[in-house]
Design brief:
Blueprint (H helix, E strand, L loop, with lengths): L3 H13 L3 H14 L4 H13 L3 H14 L4 H13 L3 H17 L4 H14 L2 H14 L6 H16 L3 H14 L4 H13 L3 H14 L4 H13 L3 H14 L4 H5 L1 H7 L3 H14 L4 H13 L3 H14 L4 H13 L3 H8 L30 E5 L4 H7 L3 H6 L3 E6 L4 H4 L5 E6 L9 E4 L3 H4 L18 H10 L6 E6 L13 H6 L15 E5 L18 E2 L8 H9 L3 E5 L2 H9 L3 E5 L20 E5 L7 H18 L4
Parallel strand pairs: 1-2, 1-4, 2-3, 5-6, 5-8, 6-7, 8-9, 9-10
Helix pairs in contact: 1-2, 2-3, 3-4, 3-5, 4-5, 5-6, 6-7, 7-8, 7-9, 8-9, 9-10, 10-11, 11-12, 11-13, 12-13, 13-14, 16-17, 17-18, 18-19, 18-20, 19-20, 20-21, 22-29, 26-28, 28-29
């Protein structure tokens, strides 16, 4: 009679020769005689898994692995069988089996590869990436297509987990292993876009399209990136190709919207947004984009409706809530607008300025008498200048008010009524009990259109500074008019902010003002726009004292010596308005929410007059009205020519 060992050898011979039924029967007989024979369990389990009875095979091989804890091949085959179950739990148990194999032989590239694949399917992207990287280190293979696919899968897991850096690394490895795989380049481009590298993303997507010109998704993604880089002509060509490649793809139309909005083709942008929405009506982002376009055209009620639809579709979409907040505020619906505006902290755009303090935030409900409250700047200089008006209201409730702000504002903030101290960000903060970001103050005070704290001046220049500027820029009987024609470019990778492009104009565009007699212009312009003074319009008598300006306290003192400030929508309009100086603000057609659709009289600043564009990009009508108003202003004050 044959021994168990002889029977096992015969069964294995049947197995390897493809006589699977004979092998199955013989393995079964061996296990009837010796049910704990680890080798019979291993091979019988392997055969069961190979012939579709995966769960039975896993059960037998698990028993074999327990009996042979040092047999790497048994644990390896168990891992493969667990992967064949096709479930996340099976993949997680497979990863444990492959880890056992690697504990026994740690330098086998194939086993690291298997572990990486199991971790990927189990949903542990970071661990999968580490395992696959180890596989790449252990292997001399540099063009492994399966390994490239595994890195792609790990990259997708990392991408889904918002680990953009890890995803980028994984996709780069996939591209290196299989440089002809267009998908690896496409996914690398998507990851690089998320890391804030639009140039690298464009290069990767371009290579993907070179390898496979039919990749509609790569073409679609390219549009947004090219807009970000200011390459509008290239973006338009990419957008047109994307629509041709996949006319049923809503993103092909939706990604054209920012391009068309940037190039002031709002009507066409609305049409493209409509096409995207018809294809995918449940996409909240398309309704959010429509809101922005409707605001651009002054259709504020429709914009609010679009925002509400976006939130209905995506109640947790912070960008949709913030967009609705802007529409509500622009339409004067302040109470609801301030509530929605709090969603700004859930968006990525404020990550660089978000402050975390152990002290609680003041909401407006808590008693502040005898407490120290930190008001802190969160966005632009103009926002700080506008909302510090609430400091006296807090002080009136008995609070000790500390202001945290840009160093350029410290001296000016120190002179605001009710402010005990102002601290430059980056410096040591004094002790405080509660804090509140500046732009949450209207919500805390329940501000609506009828209760805006609009008493001016609430900003005050140092009288000694004012006297010094009077000596530097002495009066000569003519009306002294300050000018600011450009905002801060706020460039990102060399590309100017689209809003800044719309709110700014060249100094040359103000040439008609030079023909108004009895005016002496004084530049308040800072930044790159000041270079235009070298080619000021013919006949414009304009002085440039800004070389002597150290901070906003100096600008405030200089503004106090002026009869009028004419400025685009930048920090100077808030400075002059807060000082209570006569201020004329030039506003783009898609006005900032605080100008309430370019109402000429603005409730935030009683001494301000808003001159809004009738058509986006066209300043001619504004300049004509401005010249007529300036002529009347000079005549009313009897200034000499």
């Amino acid at each position: 009679m044959a021994t168990v060992a002889e029977a096992l050898n015969l069964a294995l011979d049947h197995h390897l020769s493809g006589r699977l039924e004979e092998a199955r029967l013989l393995y079964g007989r061996i296990l009837e005689v010796d049910p704990d024979n680890p080798h019979a369990l291993h091979f019988a389990g392997l055969l069961a898994a190979q012939t579709g009875a995966v769960a039975d095979g896993v059960a037998m091989m698990r028993k074999a692995a327990a009996l042979l804890p040092l047999a790497a091949d048994v644990h390896g085959n168990l891992g493969k069988a667990l992967m064949a179950l096709g479930t996340p739990d099976g993949a997680a148990r497979a990863a444990a089996a492959f880890r056992t194999v690697l504990a026994l032989k740690p330098d086998d590239a194939g086993d690291w590869f298997a572990l990486g694949g199991a971790l990927t399917e189990a949903g542990d992207g970071p661990a999968a990436h580490r395992a696959l990287t180890r596989a790449l280190t252990a292997s001399a293979v540099t063009d492994s297509e399966p390994l490239a696919e595994a890195f792609e899968r790990a990259g997708l897991r990392l991408y889904a987990a918002a680990d953009w850096t890890g995803a980028t690394d994984a996709f780069r490895k996939a591209r290196t292993l299989a440089p002809q795989r267009a998908e690896a380049h496409r996914m690398l481009g998507a990851a690089l876009a998320q890391t804030g590298d639009p140039e690298g993303a464009v290069d990767a997507l371009g290579e993907a399209l070179r390898l496979d010109p039919t990749l509609a998704e790569a073409q679609t993604n390219l549009v947004h990136l090219l807009v970000t880089l200011g390459r509008f002509d290239d973006a338009e060509r990419a957008g047109r190709r994307a629509v041709v490649l996949d006319p049923g793809n809503a993103d092909a139309y939706g990604n054209m919207v920012p391009l068309l909005e940037q190039t002031v083709r709002v009507a066409e942008a609305l049409r493209q947004c409509g096409r995207a929405t018809r294809i995918t009506p449940e996409r909240a982002a398309f309704h959010r984009n429509r809101l922005s376009l409707l605001l651009h055209e002054g259709r504020r009620d429709e914009a609010v409706a679009a925002g509400r639809e976006a939130i209905r579709l995506a109640p947790a979409d912070a960008d949709a809530h913030l967009a609705l907040a802007v529409a509500l505020l622009a339409s004067g619906q302040f109470r609801e607008g301030w509530e929605e505006f709090e969603w700004r902290w859930e968006t990525r755009q404020l990550d660089p300025v978000h402050r975390s303090f152990p002290q609680p935030q003041w909401t407006g409900a808590e008693d502040v008498a005898g407490r120290t409250i930190l008001l802190y700047a969160e966005q632009g200089l103009g926002d700080t200048l506008q909302f510090v008006r609430y400091a006296p209201l807090l002080a009136a409730q008995g609070a000790r008010v500390i202001v945290g702000c840009s160093p350029a504002l410290v001296r000016l903030m120190e002179r605001v009524d009710g402010v005990t101290a102002a601290v430059a960000w980056g410096g040591a903060l004094p002790a405080f009990d509660r804090h509140i970001p500046m732009m949450s103050l209207p919500r805390a005070f329940g501000t609506d259109l009828d209760s805006i704290p609009a008493a001016v001046p609430y900003l005050r220049a140092d009288p000694a500074d004012v006297a010094a500027w009077c000596e530097r820029v002495p009066a000569d009987g003519r009306a002294r008019v300050g000018l600011v024609w450009a905002g801060s470019p706020r460039t990102v990778r060399g590309v100017a902010s689209p809003i800044d492009r719309r709110r700014s104009l060249p100094l040359a565009a103000l040439a008609p003002l030079a023909t108004v007699p009895g005016v002496r212009f004084v530049s308040l312009q800072m930044g790159p726009g000041a270079a235009q003074l070298a080619e000021a319009p013919a006949g414009m008598d304009i002085e440039d004292p800004m070389g002597g300006v150290r901070d906003f306290a100096d600008t405030a003192a200089l503004a106090e010596t002026l009869d009028l400030v004419i400025t685009v929508d930048t920090s100077v309009c808030h400075l002059a308005g807060g000082l209570g100086r006569p201020t004329w603000t030039l506003s783009r057609a898609d006005a900032c929410w605080r100008w309430l659709g370019n109402r000429e009289a603005n409730p935030w600043y009683p001494t301000m007059r808003v001159f809004g564009q009738d058509r986006s990009g066209d300043w001619s009508g504004v300049i004509a009205r401005l010249r007529a108003a300036l002529t009347d202003f000079v005549a009313a004050r009897g200034h000499v020519s």
